[in-house]
Design a protein that fits this description.
Shape: globular
Strand content: 15-25%
Number of strands: 12
Helix content: 25-40%
Number of helices: 12
Structural class: alpha/beta
Low-confidence stretches: none
């Protein structure tokens, strides 16, 4: 996939995910960006897959542009970004071009690292799966998140989930998620969480101003409600996220698997960024540790049907039984739940 194709593809995804402004930014980049600078040459010559199932270069650039707006470092760009009125394409492109030229060094830094969105609406499916697992096993849960970013979705048991005809979750939730729920309604009971811990190659401390900026920059500028939810969770965050490779970290963590609790390992739109060796070692670690106690491996990840959201799967060990729970919008706006 070429850079222009990747930008156009991401524009379509952003538009589908309810962000028409960022889709315009990406479309203008696809139409107008040219090689000839260190920044643009790097993107045009990017090795490997630069699209949404690879390095997601368009999202890296988009986040860098948003950071320039949030910090006020590029007044020309800030003036044409929400909440300001939408400009015409010529004025918007002129501001983007100024940012690419005047802030190339900073934008190059944003290209260095993969996206870390930590979208809390994805927790809707974690809430539903957690209730199902609590009923199936009748055991307290120790949970481990791979690719946890800042750890916001390690707090899912403190969120409520609004459903047709009712709500599940704690009586005084930090936030209430309201996806368009389709298909079956989730069943089960409120889970008891014994511990929560995550890993990320570059974990963010959401209470550190620089890390908070990075986290917020990956939220799209014309979706302020996402920012509000994120800030609400940050204010109550108490989860630990370690730095490291997922497999190196998971192997020793799972030594604590035992029959008196359920171990839940999960990831949401992170697996694709793991090297194949890391994926294999994670699977092997789960399978081995399940001989000491039950383990559930929950996955919300892209498959070949990108236009249909992410696939939801749950593998139960030691038996290795794999269940499919339907699909979910990549940002959790809708859930199409299928009871096993």
């Amino acid at each position: 996939m070429s850079l222009r194709d990747a930008l156009r593809h991401q524009a379509g995804s952003n538009r589908q995910l309810g962000s028409p402004f960022t889709a315009r930014v990406l479309d203008l980049l696809a139409e107008n960006i040219q090689p000839g600078t260190s920044l643009t040459d790097r993107m045009f010559d990017w090795p490997g897959d630069i699209g949404p199932r690879g390095h997601s270069v368009p999202l890296r650039l988009l986040a860098g542009l948003h950071a320039l707006v949030l910090t006020g470092a590029c007044p020309a760009l800030q003036a044409v970004y929400p909440p300001n009125p939408a400009p015409d394409d010529s004025r918007l492109w002129a501001a983007i071009q100024a940012a690419l030229t005047d802030h190339a060094a900073l934008l190059n830094q944003w290209l260095d690292n993969p996206p870390q969105t930590n979208e809390v609406r994805r927790a809707a499916v974690l809430i539903a799966a957690g209730h199902w697992l609590a009923a199936q096993y009748d055991l307290p849960i120790r949970m481990y998140e791979l690719g946890a970013s800042a750890g916001l979705n390690l707090m899912w048991d403190r969120f409520a989930l609004a459903l047709p005809g009712g709500q599940i979750g704690p009586p005084e939730p930090v936030i209430t998620l309201t996806p368009d729920w389709r298909g079956d309604l989730p069943t089960g009971k409120v889970p008891t969480i014994l511990s929560r811990r995550g890993v990320d190659l570059m974990p963010m401390n959401a209470r550190d101003p620089e890390d908070a900026l990075r986290l917020i920059s990956y939220l799209w500028a014309d979706q302020p409600e996402r920012l509000q939810r994120t800030r609400a969770v940050i204010d109550t965050l108490d989860a630990r996220v370690d730095a490291g490779d997922a497999a190196d970290w998971l192997e020793p963590q799972l030594k604590g698997a035992a029959p008196d609790h359920l171990t839940l390992v999960y990831h949401t739109i992170a697996w694709q960024y793991f090297p194949r060796e890391t994926q294999t070692r994670c699977r092997d670690a789960i399978k081995t540790a399940a001989q000491r106690g039950p383990i559930a491996h929950f996955s919300m990840e892209a498959d070949q049907h990108l236009d249909r959201g992410a696939l939801l799967t749950l593998t139960l060990w030691p038996e290795g039984r794999k269940l499919t729970f339907g699909r979910v919008d990549f940002h959790g706006r809708w859930v199409d739940w299928t009871a096993p």
